[in-house]
Target: Carbohydrate ABC transporter permease
Amino acid sequence: MSASSHLRPYLIKLVLVAVLAIFLAQALFPFAWMAITAFKRDSDLYNPTNNPFLFNEPPTLAHFRLLFNETKFLRWVANTAGVGLSTVLITLVLAVPAAYALSRLRGRLGQQLAVAIFLTYLVPPTLLFLPLSQIVSTLGFQDKLWALVITYPSLSTPFVAWLLMGFFRSLPQELEEAALVDGADRFTAFRRIMLPLAVPGILTAVIFTFTLAVNEFIYALTFVSISDLKTVSAGVPTDLIRGDVFFWGAIMGSALVVSLPVALLYNAFLDRFVEGLTAGALR
Model:
């Protein structure tokens, strides 16, 4: 064998490591930038002659003291968690039965309904703003967290139903048919057989829906103006940007505190998340 053939596996590994290193640097850079900015002193942060990637002065916790003591950040986090969990619950209650029904509805009608649901998800949220604001006003939910609880499922339910529909189609239908032959009704077969098997897809839907509720900004900013009732996505920019003064250290600190749990959540359930996203791809 020639020397080039001996070196080829090492060159392939070197290329893969280089690509992975570039990807990791790109993925971790926002977290590193947030961490550096959150612990920098203002005199270091705003000095244009200092290296922005290094601590030219000793780190400080002043930005976190501002965030936790002089803003309602913890209240915003609690509001975000409440709205996110409520959105997840409503979305699952609506999307899981719809996805199962569509997966069992064969023929042209089932395909048309599935495409219609997915096209609903593609409608930009800005186009839905006026009708949703009218609904919120009619129900008297302006400046209440209920405005977000009833609004966010309209953004998440179509996609989750479409996602879970493909997952249910990937499950072996013979198991359900065997349960029906043994005397179980359709609901019992769904609850006892299909639902436990759909846990990876449901977990994917939970992560997607909760992330959407945490990141959404337009409706959170418009429907809720009371500071005590704001979510993190709206509370941080409105309370930490005062006129032309940007409290960058506190802003980056809040972003770091909120984003790390979400990143750890994705990492903990990564295998199930990918399984849920790719289910049904080959069916």
